[in-house]
Recover the amino acids of this structure.
């Protein structure tokens, strides 16, 4: 299930059996990312403390918890975006498709081509809408029909109908919600296997946010989605599994979303979910 | 009762403060107005004499003449001087624009804090070297060094002049461009890395294009500086106006020449400064130079607006 995801292969899997797998019981899905005893430090400060978790392919996995609990740090460890922070130190394993991404022979650039990311604040490049979506294809030397791929990606990001007539105008001219969908289109255009989302709706108004939520549900048909959110209702609505991080960078509970929100094992989690803590 | 009167007193408008504020306002305004007055004064002084020159020498002869020899032959064709200025400007730009931008990219994207703390002051020192020293450098070191490679090089030549002017304007390109590059928000870099960009991809395909307006502004300012540069080119390139050579383009660099600015220096240094056309030619040249740099600056502003991005 962890093949390198060139376009035709993905297309085939969609046609042949993706729906079945999405409908399969959660436990039956295959693990695509697995962390073991993951510790992360910023200088002397510990941001993650022994996090071990398995993330299933084609799940939407939500990471929730109060500010400073390490959920964004965890997300950025997966595709090594933390490499850019000088004081950041990572210990433990993050396995993607069975390979520890922190091994010396792993190229973080290649890793990020398989694990894309969408940020909290929409950050389209000051380029045309077309060039924004085509950027990832161009740097990766995509030799297919770029325009076709741009159209396909914008359609998947539910933005095509709104921008199809203005592909040459700047991405910065779009509204905040449209910009965020443009960023999602940009992230999916090179066809990664996993999409990380770091609070993708927190800078948006409720209507724009709900469009993104619908979109995330669709994206899970083809991609594995891991989303950090502050919004517990959002986690409950869109995710298959939910991981609750609490202060200290510990993963306190990780289970099916329904279980977390209806009958959590840990009292602390219940307190957090019901608003008594955090 | 007494506290009430105190409060009233503290609310009282003080005539002294009002007058002081007014005085400060006027002093500041006067400084701003001074710059306008000086600019207008320069334009008037230049254009009065220049028009007087063009009433004696026809503008057609001036702008199309191919020989400049104001003192000896009374030839007032400006084309050889424009050619000299263009050769130096283009060649110095070829040197300075890519190197200056590369230095800016290094400073903004690659350099460690330590490297930056050494490089930035060095560039400022480079910018602070008096231009007359650049002139010496060209004459005493660069020309002899290149003569070994190109024996046809004259003692005064456009090549050395272009090289020193190029070096001279690198700090201008790099410091203004670096400001523009540093102003590109980090979120765009993160976006680039998140899509699997290398550092070079992020620098060249995201940061540099996002900073286009500032980079172009630095280019135009640097080119304006090269056009107006006087001392170094006078020393390095000599005082013999030449029409450009075709098709042997390298010969243009090997030969000596004269720029507009150098010609003005030559007239100003002449022993007898009459009031005739020879003297007034200096003002016509000044107008010409002024028109060229003004055009460049207006162009820079247009480009800056065209490429300006609100992130």
């Amino acid at each position: 299930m962890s093949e390198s995801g060139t376009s035709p292969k993905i297309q085939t899997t969609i046609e042949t059996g993706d729906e079945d797998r999405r409908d399969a019981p959660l436990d039956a899905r295959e693990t695509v990312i697995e962390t073991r005893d993951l510790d992360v430090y910023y200088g002397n400060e510990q941001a993650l403390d022994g996090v071990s978790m398995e993330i299933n392919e084609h799940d939407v996995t939500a990471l929730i918890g109060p500010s400073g609990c390490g959920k964004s740090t965890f997300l950025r460890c997966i595709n090594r975006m933390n490499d850019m922070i000088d004081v950041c130190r990572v210990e433990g394993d993050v396995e993607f498709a069975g390979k520890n991404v922190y091994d010396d022979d792993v190229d973080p650039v290649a890793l990020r081509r398989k694990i894309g990311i969408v940020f909290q604040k929409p950050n389209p490049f000051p380029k045309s809408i077309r060039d924004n979506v085509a950027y990832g294809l161009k740097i990766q030397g995509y030799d297919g029909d770029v325009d076709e791929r741009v159209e396909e990606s914008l359609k998947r990001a539910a933005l095509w109908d709104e921008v199809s007539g203005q592909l040459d105008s700047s991405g910065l001219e779009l509204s905040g919600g449209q910009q965020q969908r443009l960023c999602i289109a940009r992230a999916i255009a090179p066809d990664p296997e996993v999409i990380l989302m770091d609070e993708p709706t927190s800078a948006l108004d409720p209507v724009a946010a709900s469009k993104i939520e619908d979109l995330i549900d669709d994206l899970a048909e083809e991609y594995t989605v891991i989303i950090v959110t502050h919004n517990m209702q959002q986690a409950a609505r869109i995710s298959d599994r939910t991981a609750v991080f609490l202060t200290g960078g510990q993963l306190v509970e990780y289970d099916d979303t329904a279980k977390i929100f209806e009958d959590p094992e840990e009292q602390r989690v219940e307190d957090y979910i019901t608003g008594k803590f955090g | 009762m007494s506290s009430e009167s105190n409060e009233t007193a503290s609310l009282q408008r003080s005539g002294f403060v009002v007058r002081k504020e007014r005085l400060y306002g006027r002093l500041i305004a006067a400084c701003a107005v001074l710059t306008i007055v000086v600019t207008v004064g320069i334009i008037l002084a230049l254009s009065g004499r220049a028009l007087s020159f063009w009433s004696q020498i026809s503008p057609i002869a001036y702008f199309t003449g191919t020989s400049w020899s104001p003192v000896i032959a009374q030839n007032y064709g400006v084309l050889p001087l424009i050619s000299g200025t263009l050769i130096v400007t283009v060649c110095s730009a070829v040197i300075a624009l890519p190197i200056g931008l590369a230095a800016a990219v290094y400073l903004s994207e690659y350099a460690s804090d330590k490297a930056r703390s050494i490089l930035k002051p060095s560039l400022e020192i480079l910018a602070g070297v008096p231009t007359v020293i650049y002139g010496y450098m060209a004459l005493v070191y660069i020309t002899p060094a290149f003569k070994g490679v190109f024996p046809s090089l004259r003692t005064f030549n456009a090549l050395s002049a272009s090289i020193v002017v190029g070096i001279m304007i690198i700090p201008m390109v790099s410091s203004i461009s670096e400001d523009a590059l540093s102003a590109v928000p980090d979120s765009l870099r993160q976006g680039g890395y998140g899509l699997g960009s290398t550092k070079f991809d992020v620098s060249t395909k995201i940061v540099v294009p996002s900073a286009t307006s500032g980079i172009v502004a630095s280019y135009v300012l640097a080119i304006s500086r090269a056009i107006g540069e006087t001392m170094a080119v006078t020393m390095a390139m000599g005082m013999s106006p030449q029409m450009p050579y075709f098709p042997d383009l390298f010969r243009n660099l090997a030969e000596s020449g004269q720029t507009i600015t150098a010609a003005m220096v030559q007239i100003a240094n002449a022993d007898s400064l009459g009031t005739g056309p020879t003297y007034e030619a200096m003002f016509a040249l000044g107008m010409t130079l002024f028109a060229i740099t003004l055009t460049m600056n207006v162009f820079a502003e247009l480009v800056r607006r065209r490429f300006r991005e609100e992130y």
Remarks:
- The longest strand of chain A covers residues 31-42.
- Chain A touches chain B through 29 residues (CB under 8 Å).
- Residues 1-21 of chain A have pLDDT under 50 and may be disordered.
- Strands of chain A lie at 31-42, 45-56, 60-64, 88-96, 99-100, 115-118, 194-198, 224-228, 241-246, 250-256.
